[in-house]
Amino acid sequence: MNRSNVARKRATMMLDSDDEDDDTLASLPPPKTKKRKENNIEYVATGPGDFINALTEAGFHPRTGNLPNLLSVQPFEFQQNLREHLMASVHYPRSVEFFVNECETFFNERNNFIKALHLTENSLGQDSNAMSLPQDSLVRMLLQMDEIQPKLMTAILKRFTKATQEERPSATEVNLPSLILSQIAWLDRIVEPVHVVDTLLDLLNTSSSTIKKEIISCLPSVVGDKENIRVAFVLCGMLDETNNSLTAAILDVLGDLSLPVSEASEIRLKVVKRLPTVPLETVPILLSFVFKRIQADEALTIIQEVGLHFDKTFKKRHERISKETVTDCISLSMESLQISMIGSKSLSDTWIKEIQSKTDARQLFSVDLLVLVILHKITGRRLEVELLIRKKIRMETLTTELVKETFKLYDCVLKNYFEQLCAIADNLILSADTIVAQYGSMLFQEMFIHFDEFYQQEVVQALIQYVSCSGDRASSNDSPAKAALIVLQELAETSWEHLVRFSAFIVSLLEYIEYMALPQVKRVMELLAKMAYGFSMNDEAKTRLASFSAAIQSELLMIIKKQLAGKQVEYQRMGVLGSVALIHVLANPELIGEISGDGQARQSTSSLTINDSGRNGVLQSDQRLLQAKAIIDIVNASTKRIPEVFALFMDEMASTSLMHDIHPSLHSYIYDGVSLEFQENFVVNEKEQKIDIFHIPLSLLHGLDTVEEDSSEDGLVFLNIAPIAIKEQIRRDKRDRESANEPTLTTLMSHFRLLRNTIDSYEEVSLEEIDALVGCAVCLPVDEVMDHFNTMPQSDKDVVCRCYFFGINWFIEVINTFARSKNMRAKVIHRLQDVVELKGKFYRALAQNTSFMPPQSVFMGEPIRALKEKGKGKAGTKKKAAAGKKGGGKGKGLKKANVNNNTTLTTPNKSVLHSTPRASVCQVSKLDFGASQPAKVGQPEAVVSTYPINFRELDLSAFVLLSSALELTAEESPVALKPTDLEWLLGDLSAKLEHKLLTSAPKRRFPMKQDNSENESFLMLDLYKPMEVAKRSVSLIRRLTLHVEAISGYFQQLIEMSDGMLDGPEMYSELAQKLGNSYTLIFRILNRILSWHEFQKSTGATLLEDALRSIAIRVLDTAKTADVDQLHASSFDYVEKFSTSITSFACAIEHVQLLVTLYNLRPDPELSERLATVAEGYLKRSWNDRDGESHKGQKFNRDIESLLQIYLLHVPNIFAKLEDIISNAMAEVLASDEKEGSSESESFRTCNKATFSFYFRASFIALVENVKKIPSPAATPRSVKATFKTWEKVVSLLNQLVETVKTNDKRSILISCLKYGRSVIEVFYKSAMPLLDKEFKNIKEESQELLKNLQKSTRTLQNVCNHAKISSDQTLAANIPAMTRIREALFYRVKHMLAAHGCAEAFWIGHLKNKNLKGQEILSQRSVEESDDGRQSESDSSSEVEDTDEEEDDNVTVMRENAPEAGTDSDSRSREY
Known about the structure:
Layout: H1 3-16, H2 19-27, H3 49-58, E1 60-61, E2 70-71, H4 75-88, H5 94-107, H6 110-117, E3 121-122, H7 138-143, H8 149-165, H9 176-184, H10 193-206, H11 209-222, H12 228-241, H13 247-256, H14 261-272, H15 283-291, H16 296-315, H17 323-343, H18 345-357, H19 366-378, H20 382-394, H21 400-414, H22 418-429, H23 434-450, H24 453-468, H25 480-494, H26 496-499, H27 503-506, H28 518-533, H29 540-543, H30 546-565, H31 569-586, H32 589-592, H33 621-639, H34 643-659, H35 664-682, E4 683-685, E5 698-701, H36 707-710, E6 717-719, H37 721-734, H38 748-761, E7 777-781, H39 794-818, H40 825-847, H41 864-873, H42 886-891, H43 941-944, H44 979-996, H45 1012-1016, H46 1026-1035, H47 1037-1057, H48 1070-1090, H49 1101-1112, H50 1124-1136, H51 1145-1161, H52 1165-1179, H53 1194-1210, H54 1214-1235, H55 1252-1267, H56 1277-1298, H57 1307-1335, H58 1340-1367, H59 1370-1373, H60 1376-1396, H61 1422-1426, E8 1456-1457, E9 1471-1472
Parallel strand pairs: 2-3, 6-7
Antiparallel strand pairs: 1-2, 4-6, 5-7, 8-9
C-alpha cells in the first residue's frame, strides 16, 4: 500500500469516530458532479492513484514512455478544476499537502519529472476546447496555483539542489537545472520570494560556474522588488570574489534589477572600478551597465573612472588576445558609448565639461578623443566639438602622441567615423594658426596610414583638392596647400608603396603648378620626384609597383623639359626646381647602391638625354647617376644666360647638398665645375683687373691679410665686385645681349654658397682650400663718393648702391662659411663689423637714391620686374616693410648710427607683449627707447621701405659667434663683439626663432601684415626641422646669459652714477640704446625658446630640462644634479633679479613676459605673487623718453594693457587690487581731466589720459574672469556671509566702472562697458541669484541693498544702449540684443524670487524714462512720459520718492519696464531695477 492510501485511510477512520463531524457532513448538500468528457486517452502513466485521478479529472493526462503529456482543457480551466477538487475535499487545506506529497512520489521517477518540466501537448479531440499550440508544463501550471506553490516550490528547489550536484550532462542529455529554473522564472506571483531568493543565493556558493550563470541569469525573473537591493549587493560582491567568467552574467542581471537611485549609484561606482580587471569581452557590457540610467550628479565620477582605465584595458590585452577579438570588443564598446550618448544628454554634457576642465596633457585620454568624435556625429554640437578641439590644441592638452596612440589602438572603429574625422581635419587644416593646422595634417596622415585603401583614396583626393583650390593663399606660410603638400611628402617617405597606387591622382598636381608660388612648386616637384624614382631596383616589394611610378616619370620629365626650354623666366624657375628635386632623388646613395659598369664616364650633353627610364620605370644604379649628371648639364645649358634662374639653380643645389645625402661621384662632378668657374669669374688679381680705369673711383677695401703675406708678381688678389657691377650697368644701358656670358654679380653669392656646401659634404676636400677668401679684399667705390653722391648720374648712383648691396651679401656668406672655424674667429668677427659698416653706407646712399631697386638675392620669390611693379604700385602702403624683408632676415635689427648726424633707423610700432613671444618686427632697430617720431626727409626709414631689400640669410651656424665676449671698454679685442654687432646678431636670431619655434598662444594679426616677405626671409631656416633649431637655440642659452649679465652690470653702474635715477641722461646715449636693444632681445629670445610648444610634450621634456639647467647654473651650484623643480625655481630667481637694472619699457615688457613663461612651465602660488610684484613695479614707474615726456602711441598703450592684465591675473586678493586701481588710479585721472592739471595717476604712473581706456578694459576683463571663479558657498552661515560680501564687492566695482561713462564717453569705453558689463550680469544671474533664493529670508536687508546697487549699473547700461541707437554706431548697437536679453532674464528672475518668498507686491512695473549718457531725457519720448511721471514705483521697504530729478531714479528698488512709446522702436523697451 502506498503512502497516499495509508494517509487517506487514517483520515477516514478519524472521521468515522467523530459524531459531530458526521452530523456536519450529513447536513452539507451533496457535491455537484461535473460531467467529464471521454477522451479515451491511452498509455496513461501510473502513480499515486489519488494524484493521477486528480490530474485526470482536472483535464491533465500524464502518459508513459516517451509520449508527451496531454492537456484536454485550457490551462486556466485545468487550474480551476484542480483547485475545486482540492478544496472540495473534507481534509482541505491538508489535502494540498497530501497532493504535493503524492506529486513528489510521482516525480521520483526521473522520466516523469522530466516530462513534467516539458511543454504539454493539447488533446485534439473533436469536443476539445484546448488551444492547438503547446501549453505550459505540469510543474509550471502547478506553481502558478498559490495553494500548491509554497510546498511544491520547496520540493522543486530541493530537486534543483540535488541536480546541481550531479555531473554535468552530456550534450544529448537533458540539462535538468536549466529546465527547472525555466519553470521558476517569470511566474505571475511568488508566494514566498524570500525563501526562493535565499535558496538560490545559497546555491551560488556551492554550485559550479555553469550553474551559477544559470542561477544569476534567472534572478531578475524570480526576485521581487523588495529583494532587488539585497541581490544587487550580493552580485556586486561576487565580482570581487569570483573569477571573471561570471562577470558578464552578473552585469547583465544588475542592469535588469530595479534599484533606488542611491543604491544604483553606489553599485555603478563599484562596478566601474572593476574595469581594469574584467575580461575584454565584458567591457561593452560593463559600459552599458554603468551608463544605463546614469544620473547627472554621478556622471562625472563614472566618466573619470572610465577615462582612467578604458585605454589601459585594451592596451595591455593586445598582445595576449587575438586581434579579431580585440577588434570586436572595441567595436562593441564604441557602440555602447554611442548608444549611451544618444540616450543621455546629461552624460554628453558632463563629458564635454570634463574634457574642458582638463588642463594637463596627462589628464586627457584616447577615450576622450573618441567621445569627441562620437559627439561630432550624433549630436548637433559639431561647432562646439571643433572649437573645443582647437582650444585643447592651443593649450597643448591634446598632443600629437595622444592622437597617434588613439589611431594605433582604435583604428578598427575610427574608420566608421571617417566622415567626422575628415570634417574635423578640414576645420583644423583651414585654421590660420600654424599649430592647429599641423594637427589637421596629422589627422589626414594617420587616416591614410591606418585605414583601408578606399579611405586612403579619399584622403589623397582631399589633400590634392587643398593644393589645387588654395588660390592666393598657396604661397603663405599657413596655407592649407602647404600643409597638404607636407602630408603628401611625409606619406611618400613613410608609406611609398601605398601612396604610389594613387599616382593617377598625384600626377594631376602638374595641371595646377603654374598657379602656385615657387615654394609650393618646389614641394610638388619633390613629391613627384620621390614618387617617380624613390625606390631602389634591389627592393623587390617596391619594384613590383614600378608600373604606377612609370606614369609619373614620363609626365614629370616631359614638363621639366618643356619648362627649361621655355622663354619665360617663371616657367624656367619651375623647371629648375623640378630638376633639383630629380637630382636629389636620383643621386641618393641608399637608392643607388653599388654601381655596375663604368658609371663614372662622362657623356656629352648633346648625346645625353633625360628620358631614359630603363625597363618598366626601374633605373639601374649607373643609370641613376648618369641621369642626374645629364639633368645638371641640361640645366646649365638652359639657364646660363639668365642669371636669376641660374642663381636659383645653384642655391637649390647648395640646399640639397646641405640637407640630403648625394652620391660622392656626383659631389666630385659638381665640385670640379663650381670651384674652377668661381675662381675664374669673381676672384682676380691687380694684374688681371685694373681698378683705376673706371669713371667711378674704386679701391680695394676690407682686406684683412697684409700685403707681405699676399704680395706676388700679379699683385693683390681681391673680389671683383665693383668692376663687374660697372660692366653690368654699361651693358644694361646699351641693352647688350651678346655679352650675356660675362660674369654677373647676381650669381656670386649663390655660386659661393654652392661651393661651400659642396666642400662641407664632400669628404675629399675641406674649407682650408678656400680660407683665403675670408681676408680677401673687396673692390668697392671709395668712401669719398658719398661726398658728391647727389651730383652723380643716376646710373652711377645705382652702381654704388649695387656695390654696397653685393658687398653686404658677400660678407654674410663669408660669415656663414667660416663662423664655425675657431682659427678664423677674429676675421669672421671683423667681417661681422664690415656688414654693419657697409649697411650704414648702403642706407645713406639709398636715402639719396630713392628710385633704386635693390637687386634680387633671394630667388625663390618674385622676379625683379614683378617687384618693381609692386614697388611702384604700393610704395605708399609698404613704407615700413622694406627693412623687414631679407634685410630683416640678416641685418634685421641693424640700427646704424652715423657718427656725424646720429641718423637712426626707426621702425613701425608693433605690440611687444603677448602671452608668449609675439610676431615681432624683424629689425632690432624697431625697439624704440624714445618716443615714436615721424621719419624726417633723408632718414633711411623715409626711403628704405619703398622696395623690399632681400639680403642673404644668416645661417644658424653663424650664431656660434655669440660665444665671443662683449666689448664694453675702450680696449679693443679682435675676438670681442661690439654692441652693434651683438645687436645685429640677436635681432636676426630673434626673428628666426619667432618664425621657426611656434608657440601655442594666439597671435595678434594685423590687416596690413604681409606673410610673403616673411617667407622669403627664412628659406634657409626652413630647411631645418624645428627640433634641430630648438637644440641649437638651447646650446646658445649659456652664452646669452653671459651677455645679459654684462649688460645688466653696465646699467647698474649707470644707475649708481645717476644716484638711483632710472632715466638719467646717460640712459639715452648711443651705447646705452644699443645695449638696451640687446637686453630686450635676449629676454625675447629666451622667452621664445622656453615657450616652444614642443616643450609641453614628452619629446621636448629633456631639452626643456637642459634649457632650464643652462639658466639655473648661473645661480645654483648643484644645477648639474638638480631636479626639474629646483631648476625651474632657480631659473625664475635668476631672471627676476634683472628687474632692478631695466631702464626701458620695451625691455620691461619682455622681462615680465619671460617670467610669465617660466611661471607657466611650473605654476606655483609663490612665484605668481613675485611675478605680480615685478609687474606692479613696472606699472607704477614713469616711462619717459629723452625729452622727459611720457611714452605715447598705440603700441605703448596695448603693452600697458597687457602688462596690467598679467598683474591682475597673478596678484592675490584681486578684488581689493581692482578697487585700488579703479577708486584711486583711474579716479585720479578722471579728476585731473576736470582740473586741467597733470593727467597722470600718482599711484600708477602708467595710468594717464592716453592709457585710461586700456586700464578700463583690462580692469573690466579681470573683473569678469574673477567673478566666474567665485565658488558656491558651503552650508555654513560663515561661508554664506563671505560669499555674499564678495558679491557686494563685485557689484560695487561694477558700479564704479559703469559710472565712468558719465564722465568719459569714449567709444572704446562704451564698447567695453556693454561687452563686459553684460558678462558680469550673466554671471550674477547664474551664480548670485541662486544664493539669494536660498538666503533671502536670512539676509533680506542685505539682499535688497545688493539689488538696489545692481540697479544703478543696469540703468546706466540701458542709457548706453540708448546712446548707441541715437548715434547709429553699428559696433555699439551689435551689443544691444545680448544686453537686452540678460537684463530681461534678470528682471523676471528677481520677480520670481520675490514671489517665491511672499514679496510679490514689492515688485511693480512702471514706465522708465529713456535717457542718454548725460542723464538727459530723450526728446522723442518726453510727451508720453510727461503723463506717466507718477506711475514710477518703489518697493515697500523704501520711502516714496518723487522722480523730480534726473538721477533720482537710481534710488528706486523695484524692477521696472519701459512701455513702447509711440514713434519709437519697440527695442527701446528696458527692464530695470
